[in-house]
Batch of 4 targets.
Target 1
Amino acid sequence: MSPTLASKLPRVGTTIFTRMSALAADTGAINLSQGYPDFDPPQALLDALARAVREGHNQYAPMTGLPALREQLAAQLQHHRGVRVEPDAEITVVPGATEGIFCAVMACVRPGDEVIVLDPCYDSYEPAIELAGGRAVHVPLTLPDFRVDWQRVEDAITPRTRMLMINSPHNPTGSALYREDLEQLATLAERHDLLVCSDEVYEHLVYDAREHHSVLQWPALRERAFAHFSFGKTFSVTGWKTGYCVAPPALTAELRKVHQFVAFVAVTPVQQAIAEFLAAEPDYPATLAAFYQRKRDLFNDALAASRFTLVPSAGTYFQLLDYGAIDQRPDSELCERWTREHGVASIPVSVFYQQAPELRLLRFCFAKSDATLLRAAELLCKI
């Protein structure tokens, strides 16, 4: 007789990313659904990893991360953001930003607390909130440009509100917060004594001469925010599953209490390799915006003759295509049909909403080789 099991996440199934990547593999379609590059990372980084393994960096690192890596990350934040961070007390290296976000939520959200999330929101946020006993309060971004309506956010705040989660540059839409957005966030967080969980994993992928604005650059947010970053996105090594979280000492201490019992440490030779690479190539992250903007423009220019409409992505390596002039079927149905019939896999934007509005949008990843992007665009132009 099977034991009785009541799921803690009854509404959660296999992620859309797994499903669409599997469908692409089954059908031989070009996979522009899941967000990972199909090209190699810098050779110097690969060499550094091989060297780290050969030289014996294969046992547990300190729970907080290798000191050499945390020192390099503090230098990076000073260099790119003008922010001073104490590497021992404020930086924690984690096995991926998703784990860091989970630990931040578990450390601070208690049963009955509310956490405001902005729809469309990345799919890992709400399960973390629910597992902590909290409730996600969904506030939709405004259409068509996916901006934050800060009055609507404030209207959603109640005495139970504990945290507000933001994501910029934003997955899945490719939008990015402006300076005035961070200023309004700082005002609200102080006024209502809120914690902030800031997903900034695409921090270096911002285009058209715009700047990334981090919560770490606002003193009022700096003292109440967890900021999460990803080496996988920055160095094109998503399979290395390594990132880091920056937070003030009191919040960092709480995050580490959870982190040590979830994963304990991130992978040691990966940390060693990244520390060595950053020491040798401190300006490498600053090259990424131009690299990915060229890929975005290549893909979009190749779609000029298509029936899709688009606004160039402001950040991330995702581009939304509006198919409203082609078909009126739901995006979740159409992305599967077109994967099978036209050979290009994408992600439906509606899955990132609690209650999706009338959208005709599909998300495509342009972190691919030029040949892959041109071939995908050729197929999409035939729809």
Target 2
Amino acid sequence: MYDGDGTTVEYDTRTVVASLVVGVFFGGMVGGVAFPTLPRLGSVLGFSALVVGVILAINRATRMVVNAPAGAVLDRVGTRRPMLAGFLLEGVAPVGYVLGLTDWWTNGLAHLLPASATAASAATFVLARVVWGVGSAFVLVGAFSTVTKVTTPENRGTWTGYMRGGQSLGFPAGLVAGGLVADLVGFRAAFAVAGVAAAVALVVCALVLPDLQSGADGHESRLRDVPRLAFGDARVFAVGATNFVVRLLYAGVLLSTVVEYAAANDIRVGSLSATGVSGVVMAVCALFAAAATVVAGPLADRAPSRSSVAVPSLGVLGVGFACLALAPTLVGTITGVALIGLGVEGANLPLLAYLGDISPADDVGKLGGVYNVFGDFGSTVGPLVALPIATTYGYAAEYAGCALLCVAAIALVARAVTDDGPVTTPRTAADG
């Protein structure tokens, strides 16, 4: 592996990945803190439902746009500086949240725009979420690039699993911490927790993360070649499209509908309302997703092919949605979301490791960006269509449709994810 000065250096995989686990865990906390707090801005600050929706969605839309350029930057300048910049930007976002709640800031900004204090506050929150989206793009694409560069095909699944496990646990940890602190102390304190989490991630990674270069000859594929990287190789498209389906179903459909599903079917846990039940349900889903990262990684390394783990996992994902469609009870719901958690990471993790296997050394970042673009597109589209479809056709029909999408993804992976030869990039094709 090449360090920033061009010399060949061997890095301890365990140490590097451990720092990434810490980084993505606390980075995930920053994102998780937002969800128990930001949706309440309408009642606290007088924002309309549309404005709150924009604030919640703009970070992911931003990340979808920035993923590919972030990958190009990582390929060109190395992994360390862009990732540290990403962690720093994630830490700046909670500062923006606090400013959005601060009278002297919103009143002063209102005079400059000119606009009302409410509009100035909303603009501050939107800008903070955009900053977080940019930062998280560099963090997530950089984490994939770093893990790929310090591992081999023989252990990549295992170490990618640890990294994804940290990411999977960070978000629900943020949900819990943000909700509790906001209720007990207030919104500013909750946002301060997010800032501290980002600072911890930045410090740990600044101390440990190396500056990994590809060792390429400076003729890596250009940013404008990214669409050809995404669609020119059937394997890359299959991995990306599967990530789109998984994120559409999990972060889009399930997260957007589980509260109303519980209410519509009168699913209760003790005295908890549908809101409380949805929290329990998503905690179960997150725990099983985290467990899947620990199990699926080693399995993917030992299996004859990555697809032999991904395909059954997609089947488990489909069965989970079928349980929700066919058994709208507490037991059926818990079983369904547990299977969905297992299927999400059981499918995504081996495919992410496979993408690392076939990525040319000088285009790892760009292909990681392509992967995340597909996933963020699914996460963005899902909430837009989930509730309208459920309202029109019912939850059973929607979840049954989700199960059918899993069958389509199985067919795509089984057909396309077949060999481990490197991706032919526009640059290498021209050289050949």
Target 3
Amino acid sequence: MTGKQAKISVTELLSLLPDEELNKIARRTKVNYYVKVLDGKSIFCLILYALVECQRNSLRTMEDIFNSPHFKFLFNLDATQTVRHSSISERLSVINIEFFQQAYELTYEYFSTYYNRIQRENVRLIRVDSSMVAEAANKLIEGMNIGRKKDGKKQIKYTVAFDGDLPCMTKIFTNRQCLSEDITIPQVVFDYARKDQNAIFTFDRGVNKREVYRKLSNQGTGFVTRLNPGAKFKLVRELEEGNNRTVGALELIRDIEVQLTKNRKEYRKFSDETFRLIITRHPEDGTEYWFLTNLFDIDVEEVLQHYKKRWDIEVFFRFLKQELNFSHISSTNPNGIAVMMYMTMITAMMVLIYKKLNNIGYKTAVRRISLELNELIIKMIVKHCGGDPSLVFR
């Protein structure tokens, strides 16, 4: 049986999030004010269950799930309550988003604490990147227009901070100016840096504004990124002559301290602000890779390893889209989209912990969680009817 073989079960995962804490958030945010059926906890449980159970979640799917007896039995909801998909849509459009934001932050706090007792990286390395979603974009109420036509299809951007195990911060952007990574990624980096001053951030070269690098250095926030080869700089000092020594899969050309600038006037303006530029080359095709950081107290290999781990967030995005159907937009209302985003991240954290501790793949983790939930429902029903579940699940 799945539950007996697992190093952590779905029941144990759910128990990490005490009901009383969610109830406190509900009272604090007044999410249930004048609401009888679709209260905060019901919506929370409904979306969580739907994301795991359904390959392609939708409002009609959530209607069927909510009205099913086994769902209400699992989460101890009123069996007499029923809803229509239109009611779910309307509720998502107006429900207090703070309830889901705080529930997401609470989930991360509890799950990351649990992870700390098991295995975490020694370095607090935060990977930050964005992903665009355009499915059902022609129905979006708000979004970035694709192309020049104002009446064209729209898309939204999710920018996520990922700590190597769990998504620790996420934001939605719908304004067209936020197509630029120079706006979205720094916003998440600076917001998270205020929460965790010991974090080191790694992001791709889509962020290329020198002012972002300077601001990070001025506030003492470490970062590692890529720089476009050929970028202008002024040499301050040579840290190491590479002599083409091997660093990972690359060859080191130079490790230098530099000033970054676009013209000579900026040399004087930013004379006190320097960065570390590591220039490498692929030994086979000769392609150069430039890495920029403000970390001077670690060796070249560690800088490159920090950047290499940035790929983890690409894998995380692929998992979201392939296994949790993140590309599909269940709600076209900005508030509903935000609710779905937070709930998707909460569900993702459960799957990631289950996957890691049971040493299985993403698809297997989602499938086994679904099986365990249904097994749990059967056990609860058998026990509720006065039977012995052990006679069924030997």
Target 4
Amino acid sequence: MTGASPTQRALRPDEVAYLLRASLGSPVQVRDSGPLDGGGYATVWWALLDDDRRVVLKLAPPTGTPLLRYERGLCAAEARYFHLVAERAPQVPVPEVLHHGTDPAYGEWLVTAMLPGRSLVDLAESGVDDGPARYDLGVALAALHQVTGERFGYDDDRPGGSTWRAAFTAMLDALLADATDWNVRLPVTPARLHALVQRHAAVLDEVHRPALLHFDCWDGNVLAAPDPDGRWRLRGLVDGERFLYGDPLLDLVSPWLFRRVEEEPEHPLLRGYQATAAEPLLLDASARRRLGLYRLHLYLLMTVEMPSRGMTVRTHPGRHTRLAGLLDEEIAALAAN
């Protein structure tokens, strides 16, 4: 497969088989395999082994590939995340890590068990009722958020801080530096962005505990399958490499991509979260301002990452225009409060 993104690489079935033997032992044989679509960062293949196991191989970008600052070491981060969730929140369905390895020719990769189910993107296109799966996602997020980290932000040597305000500011500063490196034109200047964060710093300081966050819970990363009664329930939460520690509200942005969670108070995800969360989830005035900052961060990230994924204003005009409009909306709302 040759991905459109410069961070992805071409793979052949025999190379997939080689990496799986290196991961799981030389007796392993691959009966069938193929690429998995849906992401623009790593190269991902599924494989059916001769012992009937289905596994997923995720190959990191080649060494030396230009990446955003927070993306450095994501393959190892994903392995850490899945191990952590399995240990601290075992009720959350994440893939079992089977191997995390490196090879001089192929670089870094991860092999996990393949979870059953279809993504919520697929379900939306088929018109089935995905409400129960979204309820389950709320339950899963509430469980994840009970895990507490040692600091706010990303782990390892990526942007973080001793307070949520410091970590969030560092995350934004990293994206602004990436925008400069990649010559990305933004609808907001660094000075304007810093002024907005400073204006709302008090609500960021209300976050005192670094909760474990998935961050990337858009519909493509949520898997569901029918139960015996035919209801579609959560079966997997995948692509955990972008995890960080911070405000649980940050995890309520990606599931409502291009929408606002506070405008859908009866959503199944919120009902599942509220039913099982250790602390009440209040979408009050403070929460709404924080959500505005978090949407600003996400849309900024999605804009800045475009050239690193081989996307330009010319090749993806609709994406760029939509994100610019959303950024303008969030900036205006934050400036008015």
